[in-house]
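Reading a protein record of the kind used here takes only a little practice. The integers have meaning only within a learned vocabulary of local backbone shapes. With that in mind, consider the following protein and its fold in token form:
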Amino acid sequence: MFSDDDYEGFAFIQDVNDVNCNMNNKAGIPDSWILLDSQSTVDVFMNKKLLKNVPDAKTPLSLHCNAGVATVNKVGDLAGYGTVWYYENGIANILSLNNVKKKYRVTYDSTASGCFKVHKTDGTKRVFKPSKKGLFYSSVNNDIVLVTTIEDKINKYSVREYSNAKKACEHQ
């Protein structure tokens, strides 16, 4: 039988081993999405624009997936979260639910919103909604990832919720 230690450093994601498997190859996952994945055991991003300070890693990661093993040699800083692996040939920006829950409180209510909510200590939340295909994502199109700004209250809502509220106020 396998123990939890057998899976240390593994990320169970779909990938094509060392084939240029990114958004240009129609993986279908926008590079502005961050996925919250209950099957991944590492945080790995493919969109370098979401990261700062992307140096070589001290030790490479062997990223195991359905298609084989990929070697990841870089890490980056995700603002408001910490260090994640950077794999330019990846198909998605993935946060491991297991790692996120170590840093933040995470809630899920299948009878209410059907969304995962990541609660920061300052009261802000990041909402991960299900896509049509069932991936839980948070879009960062016009957003800053997990960062608290002066406008605290705005960060408690998605960009869409905030825009809709603004439009509703304009029509009153």
User: Anything to note?
Assistant: The first helix runs from residue 97 to 103. The helical segments are 97-103, 159-170. Confidence is low (pLDDT under 50) at residues 1-26, 144-152. The chain has one domain: 4-170.
